[in-house]
Specification:
Elements lengths: L2 H22 L4 H12 L10 H16 L2 H13 L8 H26 L2 H49 L4 H11 L3 H14 L4 H12 L2 H16 L3 H60 L1
Length: 296
């Protein structure tokens, strides 16, 4: 067996169990302890690390050193926009990218050694590149879905805030009530914004952080209007009422746009799947009769 094949087999043998660990392992005990202690007001103990967690942390540090700094910042921003899921911490994401690249590279090397054609080299390079960027694609898709959910929930949330402010509550209290009554990503972001204000951030910084985390143009426009109302002393009730009307109008326009796109999207399935079968059913007997008449 050639050295390259042995190297590929060794890389696959090492990367498969590590990939399974990065995908199915439970969240890090230190991270879970940190969250629990923040809720209780205690400090996490540093002596509770298991030997497996120490080694996993060392491998995650190695993956972080091998990943470019720009890629780490981009992944961290994508994690923020995806809501920072507990099963996808940044360290595990970096480890998964590295292991997927190693596995794809090992399989590509075996395929190239078995065929030896230039097309196999191109396919190997493409597969290795795709394997490296698969976590980025999954994370980006999850972030887009979350942003879409925030956009869909924004109009109803603004209506609730408008009713609360007109009933006599302050803007922060209206935010707190909307975050408490909601159960989607927008409610989570509102609660986090209030927590940022409570720990010492200015309102403008907390609102701008909310717009950055959500990456929704409508929410960013609403945040900009709230900041301007706070700066110039404009009534927040008028701002909320105007923004709620605008969000409802935009939601109606988006629904009408999707409804107008349906006939265009139906054309290709109709032409490829329905019309050929319809022609066969309608013209098939006539063609058979014609063929029978000429053959007789």
């Amino acid at each position: 067996m050639s050295p390259s094949v042995m190297l590929a087999v060794a890389a696959l043998s090492l990367s498969v169990p590590l990939l399974l660990w990065s995908m199915f392992a439970r969240p890090d005990r230190v991270a879970a302890q940190s969250v629990a202690n923040l809720q209780r007001g205690l400090l996490p103990g540093a002596d509770n690390l298991a030997p497996g967690e120490r080694s996993a942390g060392g491998f995650a540090a190695l993956a972080r050193r091998l990943t470019p700094a720009g890629t780490v910042r981009r992944l961290d921003l994508q994690l923020t926009r995806a809501g920072r899921p507990h099963s996808w911490p940044l360290q595990r994401l970096l480890v998964g990218k590295l292991l997927l690249c190693l596995m794809a590279g090992g399989l590509s090397l075996l395929y190239i050694r078995s065929t030896g054609s230039p097309i196999a080299v191109v396919i190997g390079i493409v597969v290795t590149t795709v394997g490296y960027f698969v976590p980025d694609l999954l994370l980006s898709s999850r972030g887009k879905e979350r942003s879409k959910r925030i956009q869909n929930e924004l109009a109803d949330t603004l209506d609730q805030m408008t009713i609360a402010v007109e009933a006599g509550l302050g803007f922060d209290s209206a935010l707190a009530r909307s975050g408490k009554n909601g159960n989607g990503p927008l409610a989570e972001e509102l609660v986090r914004t209030l927590q940022d204000i409570q720990v010492g951030q200015s309102r403008r910084q907390a609102y701008e952080a909310l717009a950055t985390r959500s990456n929704v143009p409508d929410l960013r426009r609403f945040i900009r209007a709230v900041i301007q109302a706070d700066m110039y002393g404009i009534s927040i009730a008028d701002v909320l009422r105007t923004q709620a009307d605008e969000m409802r109008l935009k939601r109606r326009q988006r629904a009408e746009e999707k409804a107008m796109q349906i006939p265009v999207k139906v054309i290709f399935p109709l032409m490829l799947c329905i019309l050929p079968v319809l022609f066969i059913v309608l013209l098939g007997p006539a063609v058979m009769d014609i063929v029978a008449a000429f053959s007789a």
